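Assemble and predict.
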Amino acid sequence: MTTATAFKARVVNGVDVSALNETVAAIKDNAEIAKFNFRATNKWLGGAKNRTTIKEFTGALDEHRNGIQAFIVDNSEHEVLLGYDEAPNPVEWLLHALVGCMTTSTVYHAAARGIVIEAIDSQIEGDLDFRGFFGLAPDVRKGYDALRVSMRLKTAADPITIETLTKMSPVFDVVSRAVPLTLSIETY
Amino acid sequence: MTTATAFKARVVNGVDVSALNETVAAIKDNAEIAKFNFRATNKWLGGAKNRTTIKEFTGALDEHRNGIQAFIVDNSEHEVLLGYDEAPNPVEWLLHALVGCMTTSTVYHAAARGIVIEAIDSQIEGDLDFRGFFGLAPDVRKGYDALRVSMRLKTAADPITIETLTKMSPVFDVVSRAVPLTLSIETY
């Protein structure tokens, strides 16, 4: 399928390709449009439980989600990790972020190229050795030491093409390369 | 506060310190207990929307959450990113995972050391330049190029001690160091 076809098919994979192309053209004109700042606040609720509020973000030269209801989501831990299992734990939420980002990135980049996708079903898993977290083995890392993602797509495109699109994912980039993090702590 | 005090105070920061110490002792005895496998499945729902199911995991030589209700959570994108904003987007979920993990890790390690924490309130933000995602600038990465976390804790402990505990976080480890990811794609 050619780019011309993608332009004609205004919506591909549920993505408004005309709007997508306009966005890309606008960014080429003014790089500031591409600069986003996402944020969240979190409140500890005792033990393994804490609550995140996700609302405003900055991007495309504007502030968004002002005055609307925030997304409120919890972290917990299963009993075997000394919590009450009221919500997924942070390392499970990371799997959600990663597999979701790889899916959305595939869908958007496929749409931009006119590649029609009819279905995507994925599985993700990660191995984590808590000897790292507990400081019991200096050679064992604290986070996942391996992640595995299997995606099954209904599409005429070949797996190698799809893999290229999947790897455009921002969260895939984050887990594949270190991100500098500034930590500021205040006690009172 | 000494370790002996922590043992006496069975619950510190809402964490069962006796159980925590038993877990650590058990892992020292048999490293296999520390090995966990977390997983999730994800289904694309069209456009920017996809849905993750989080349920069973393996750890402490057992399978968990068999036969209980799964956690079901969505990814979406805001209108400015061509979605309908039905849920946080994947890079926002990543902030949730990260700040939550840093909080829980601080709470658990503080409890193990007998450090009492009365409150934690955090802010997290990340800068993301979408020129990377759109492939418009080879020097711009696809994911966050900077993350900033501010934590405010009500505790007698000093910020430098707290920082050590915070950095025990598995998700902090993941964003601070690359994780090997195996990707398998099948099309039909």
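Residues 21 and 54 of chain A are 28 Å apart (CA to CA).
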